[in-house]
Amino acid sequence: MQPVAATENSIHQAIHTTAEEALSARPVMASLIRPFVNLFLQKASCITRLDFDTWTEDLKGAHDRLLSGIPILMTLSLEPWRKPLETACEWMLPAIREAFPAIGGDIEAVTAAYRNDNLPLSRLAEEYLDGSFTHYESSAQSIGVSADTLAFVMNTVLSTVLEAFAPRIWAGMEDVRWSKGNCPICGCLPSVSYLAKPSGDAGEFLKDSGGKKFLHCALCGHNWRINRHICPVCDNTDAELRFFLSVPDYPGERVDICRKCGFYLPCADLRERSAMPHLDTAAVCMVHLDILARQQGFKPLSYLTWNRIENGIEFPQDISS
Amino acid sequence: MPKSFFIDTSRCIACRGCQIACKEWHELPANQTRQQGSHQNPPDLNPNNYKVLRFSEYLDGDTVRWLFFPDQCRHCQDPPCISVGGSLVDGAMIHDSQTGAVVYTEKTSKISEKDFENILSACPYNIPRRNPKTGRISKCDMCFDRVSHGLVPVCVKTCPTGAMNFGERKEILDMANARLAEVKKTFPKAMLADADSVSVVYLLTDDPQKYYKFSVAQNDSGMDRKMFFAQLFRPVRKSASSVLRG
Fold first, then answer.
1. Using an 8 Å Cβ cutoff, are A141 and A315 in contact?
2. Using only C-alpha atoms, what is the Rg of chain B?
3. B172-202 CB burial, b ≥16 within 10 A, e <16
4. Which residue of chain B comes nearest to A20, CA vs CA?
5. pLDDT at site A198
6. A287/chain B closest Cα distance in angstroms
7. Distance CA A82, CA A88 (A)
8. N or C end of chain B: smaller count of CB under 10 Å?
9. How far apart (Å, rounded) are the C-alpha atoms in residues A145 and A139?
């Protein structure tokens, strides 16, 4: 079940509801959740204002490559995205600075570089997508910030544009059955999975009871279906080697773990929920499950801004993994 | 945002899963009943059954028609029961503005039997029941504990056919109207019962009276003279949400 196209208000409502439910259960997480909530709110406002029509790329070739297993954006230039990337910068840089005052100085430096046209947005976005990060160290050094901060900024800016464009990019590709662990649009890994609510489609006698598993892309926010009995990393189907951890009294939140490959992914069980949560917010709100899995020696499928728990995670492998 | 149920009786198969799930979730004891010659059991709502599957049948020419009606509180938009009894005991009867749920708490045990009779007579759907031993008044609470944690009511979770549905009011009304248009092709008399004034919208395929006397509201005015004065002199109540959520 793909969530239907949402308005700015409905996304804001979902963000608030998701966060408040988590905070009522775990108020101690407020200092972690609130900054991301503010960031997601701003992102939702921005994506409803980005103009997709500036991008006129013919996606016919991308459809054929997708059938061969190559994500849509892997082979495309993002130079035509310069304008939307700039719009996203205007919206998101102040929001990052406000949400994370500890890196406020770095964000101001990035903002100044962007205003002075010293930030090659399109190239950095392409390198983020292909995972090469070739110019991140040099670009970061030239403006006096850490490469990690620059990567965080590009993650926020690029994900804003991608989230706005993903539904339009995917239109016309629905016939492609994609069951890989990485996103069919941008190629990135998921931040969270979910077991879908009942679709509401009822047959002649019985209704769909939900439970189809979807992965939610950490970058573009696209959701795609995957078989529940397969590890999205190593395709392991051995039930003896797959299990999940959850916290008592909160059966709707769990973390799926594969002993074969050692990776884990948080999962929101939406089968009994009355409304679709905001999945990025839900992922932040399940960081306690990240901790639980890390304590048992398992690795996250995606290193995200909020789940860098251990010290010594090196750049750029942690971001591109 | 206010929530609503959509109960599509055209999909109901009278399995009584909703009735049993409700009893289990609320940990209500069993009733001693006798065979009444009907599928309907227990024969009526009672303090141990917030929900009952009503069963009726009639002969339509040579065809026996079975009608199933999962009866429960309608969680009225403007609840007459609250107008009559809401000010009797502080925190006993609450209309939660966030969900639309009408919830009776254990403080209803302090309401007298006579006042209960007034509350019952104000209900257009004959729903509240009083436990004669404890004095507590009870009915469907919209699974308030589940809904306030983002879950659907347990009767909705249990329903295997899609008869029971729950969600944001606007979405539910859209769903109900779309389904009505479809069902009318087969059942021209199909209707949505009192959709504008309640949070539990039933789709009926036949004359409402053939289902059950109270399948639609039975006292339209909603407020007799006694109720009017009860409303006029009631003290300002605490915010429903603050009472329910502590």
1. no
2. 18
3. bbebbeebbeebeeeeeebbbbbbebbbbbb
4. B149
5. 85
6. 19
7. 10
8. C
9. 9
pLDDT tens digits, A252-274: 899 999 999 999 999 999 999 98
Asked whether the ipTM of the predicted complex exceeds the cut of 0.85, the reply is no
Closest residue in A to B13 (Cα) is A205
Task: Give the whole-angstrom CA distance, residue A188 versus residue A216.
Answer: 10
Inform me whether the C-beta atom of residue B147 falls under 8 Å from chain A C-beta atoms: yes
* Interface residue A273 vs chain B (CB under 8 A): yes
A209 touches chain B (CB under 8 A): yes
3-state secondary structure B49-61: ECCEEEEEEEEEC
CATH architecture of B1-27+79-246: 2-Layer Sandwich (3.30)
pLDDT digits (tens, 9 = 90+) for A160-218: 999 998 988 898 898 898 989 999 999 999 999 999 998 877 777 888 888 999 999 99
Nearest CA in chain A to B159: A207
Tens of pLDDT, residue by residue over B58-88, are 999 999 999 999 999 999 999 999 999 999 9
Size of chain B in residues: 246
A42 close to A92: Cβ distance less than 8 angstroms: yes
The partner residue sitting opposite B151, judged by closest CB among A13, A200, A274, is A274
Burial (CB count within 10 angstroms: exposed 0-12, middle 13-18, buried 19+), residue B41: middle
| Closest by Cβ to A205, choosing from B1, B149, B161 | B161
What's the alpha-carbon Rg for chain A, to the nearest Å? 19
Chain B residues in contact with A252 (beta carbon < 8 A): 150-151
- Residue A207 contacts residue A199 (beta carbons within 8 Å): no
Pair type for strands B200-204 and B102-104 = unpaired
Residue B204's beta-bridge partner residues?
A: B191
Cite the residue boundaries of each domain of chain A with CATH code 3.90.1670.10. Answer: 190-320
> What pLDDT sits at residue B218?
85
pLDDT at B92: 96
The pLDDT tens digits for A211-241 are 999 999 999 999 999 999 999 999 999 999 9
Q: How distant is the alpha carbon of residue B9 from its chain centre?
A: 14
What tokens were used for A189?
A: 């890994």
Fold of A190-320: FdhE-like fold (3.90.1670)
For residue A318, pLDDT beyond 60: no
By Cβ distance, the residue of B13, B150, B159 closest to A275 is B150
Of A272, A279, A285, which to mutate for an interface test with B (greatest number of B Cβ within 10 Å)?
A272
